[in-house]
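User: I've been trying to design a sequence by hand for this structure and keep getting stuck. Would you show me what you'd pick, starting by listing the structure so we're on the same page?

Assistant: Good idea, let's start from the same input. This is the structure you sent:
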């Protein structure tokens, strides 16, 4: 049997990346949103390394005469609320806000205009960098029924070109990250051909390992489960991403979906049982048979009793990894991270794959108790202790 030098070098590079990740403290990024702009006491933020303010609209940067940078808070106001040295970033884009990116990516001229305007914004606001939230380049975004994926295929090669222009305009010292899909079916722009080019321009990727069950699904699963999270990060690693530049995503909110009563009731497990139709097959519109809310939100009255049962009677799935509850009375599937479920992910995902950090959507969404942030802190503390112990060996 011939020795496979290519495979050996690939595994050597992964081992070296894991050693680098182990020798530096893990990143901890918190998205801070205009919907929940709540920040806890600074002592609760001791592990936070970056804060990404969400969002600025990408279309803003296509205007050649733009001079206004609207955001819900100023960098000067926010810096004292976080530990010294915390990097402040601006997140540009978001789930449904893609048109501005498409316009920006169209040509060399539009890419340069966009990037130069972003650089002007960074200088004017005093932030340390940007997070590119063009979450679905190449298709499968919110408008995928109106604009088919083949019509967006040109965005796949254009995406790394836009990142290249951003890096050229911002320079080597500013941070550039990107939020990227957690489901392989949505990773149209993230292949073995494109990921190395993408990573060349970025400091790290925030892999959205949440909403892994959404209205396009037809069976129940964990929206932020361990097994699905492993599949997500493995896809990026297989495509050429350095594990130390990947951050695992945590969701500080709940999800619920309506299910088929008979099929779920007769199944050996409610995991994988049929849902009702959640999305309009013609338009892709949400049919209102699912929902979610953050820990800072009021619980919707129509699911309040069911949610109380989910909190008290739910269980952890040791096979797929995730906390869940199926409400037989109301035919609702609940999926969310408890503090215990959050802490389990550090050895099961972060340590197992040698990832470089974590992030959460979002900080204020966990107010007022910040119990999930506390669990994240505990997980990071234990992760650091484990790494120190291994380094001492």
């Amino acid at each position: 049997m011939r020795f496979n030098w290519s495979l050996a070098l690939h595994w050597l590079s992964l081992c070296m990346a894991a050693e680098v990740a182990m020798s530096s403290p893990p990143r901890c990024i918190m998205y801070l949103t205009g919907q929940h702009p709540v920040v806890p006491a600074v002592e609760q933020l001791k592990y936070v390394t970056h804060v990404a303010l969400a969002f600025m609209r990408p279309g803003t940067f296509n205007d050649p005469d733009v001079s206004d940078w609207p955001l819900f808070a100023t960098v000067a106001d926010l810096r004292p609320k976080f530990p010294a040295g915390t990097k402040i970033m601006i997140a540009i884009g978001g789930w449904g806000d893609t048109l501005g990116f498409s316009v920006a990516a169209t040509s060399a001229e539009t890419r340069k205009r966009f990037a130069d305007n972003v650089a002007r914004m960074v200088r004017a606001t005093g932030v340390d960098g940007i997070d590119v939230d063009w979450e679905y380049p190449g298709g499968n975004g919110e408008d995928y029924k109106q604009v088919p994926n083949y019509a967006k295929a040109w965005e796949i090669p254009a995406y790394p070109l836009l990142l290249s222009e951003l890096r050229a305009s911002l320079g080597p010292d500013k941070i550039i990250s990107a939020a990227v899909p957690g489901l392989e079916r949505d990773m149209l722009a993230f292949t073995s051909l494109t990921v190395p080019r993408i990573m060349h321009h970025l400091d790290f990727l925030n892999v959205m390992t949440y909403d892994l069950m959404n209205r396009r699904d037809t069976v129940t699963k964990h929206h932020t489960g361990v097994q699905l999270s492993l599949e997500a990060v493995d896809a990026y690693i297989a495509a050429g991403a350095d594990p130390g530049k990947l951050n695992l995503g945590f969701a500080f909110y709940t999800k619920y979906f309506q299910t088929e009563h008979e099929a779920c009731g007769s199944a050996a497990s409610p995991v994988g049982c049929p849902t009702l139709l959640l999305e309009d097959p013609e338009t892709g519109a949400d049919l209102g048979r699912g929902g979610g809310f953050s820990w800072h939100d009021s619980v919707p009255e129509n699911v309040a009793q069911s949610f109380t049962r989910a909190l008290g009677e739910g269980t952890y799935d040791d096979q797929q990894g995730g906390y869940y509850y199926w409400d037989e009375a109301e035919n609702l599937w609940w999926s969310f991270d408890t503090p215990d479920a959050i802490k389990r992910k550090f050895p099961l995902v972060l340590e197992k794959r040698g990832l470089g950090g974590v992030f959460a959507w979002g900080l204020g969404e966990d107010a007022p108790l910040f119990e999930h942030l506390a669990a994240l802190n505990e997980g990071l503390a234990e992760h650091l202790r484990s790494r120190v112990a291994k380094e001492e060996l």
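That's my pick for every position. To get oriented when you compare it with your attempt: The two ends are 35 Å apart (CA to CA). The mean pLDDT is 94.
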